[in-house]
Amino acid sequence: MKIKKILVTQNQPDSEKWPYNELATKNNLKIDFRPFIQIEGISLKEFRQSKIDILEHTAVIFSSKTAIDHFFRICEEARVTIPDTMKYFCVSESVAFYLQKYIVYRKRKIFYGKSSIKDMEDLFQKHKEDKYLLPISDSQNQEIHDFLTKIKIQHTRNIFYRTVSSKIDENEINYDVLVFYSPSGVKSLIENFPDFKQNDIKIASFGNTTAKAIQDAGFRIDIKAPIPEAPSMTMALETFIKEHNKNNKK
């Protein structure tokens, strides 16, 4: 059977120029978005139980826009005023620019990598004496912590938000392809459908940790990204779908 319907297990982007729109138009596909997880911020009471003093730190590391939102939410609820001297290290330029929602961007010390924490090794070495705070989710993997430990950067990890599985109806997974971007999305699928059988459904995976979660769950990965010939998920999907649909005329 031809691939006609794809479900992307995350929120639909606002931009009309999102690559999935082009993918759908070029290949006559129906592409829907349905987040399999929800984000919940920890309460101020929970944060205080961690006994973390934000102002003991001279720099903050942000791995996502969500981390930024919940860091500043906790600061507001705890009535913590962040000093102008605080340094901000972000995994990418887009995450760094998101800081404008909370601070006067041009007046702060902000650093960012291309897309990964490892891009900033030289920057961390130049600011080796700082004490870093790393706001994370309950499901965040060890990669950043391991990297900072390896290069001997003093840092404190603390959970600021958590991922919770969304309630999903069986009709909502009636698609030819399911696209996963996180292990949490895979976990949600299993929690909602303990007896889920993949059969002819194709599963697309973005990133190594997501791929591992899919394989650990006993499912088959049909489409994987990023890979050298397909650095984005939409490129990997398009390559696979063109070949698959060429060989399946119905």
Summarize this structure briefly:
The protein is 33% helix and 22% strand. The protein is α/β, with parallel strands linked by helices and 250 residues long.
What does this structure look like?
The protein is an alpha/beta fold and 250 residues long. The protein folds into two domains: 5-36 and 168-247, Rossmann fold, CATH 3.40.50.10090; 40-163, 3-Layer(aba) Sandwich (Rossmann fold), CATH 3.40.50. It is 33% helix and 22% strand. It has helices at residues 19-27, 44-49, 65-77, 93-98, 121-126, 143-150, 183-192, 208-216, 233-247; strands at residues 5-8, 30-33, 37-41, 59-62, 87-90, 109-112, 132-137, 155-165, 177-180, 202-206, 223-225. Strands 3-8-7-4-5-6 form a six-stranded mixed beta sheet. Strand 4, helix 3 and strand 5 (87-90) form a beta-alpha-beta unit. The chain starts with a strand and ends with a helix. The mean pLDDT is 93.
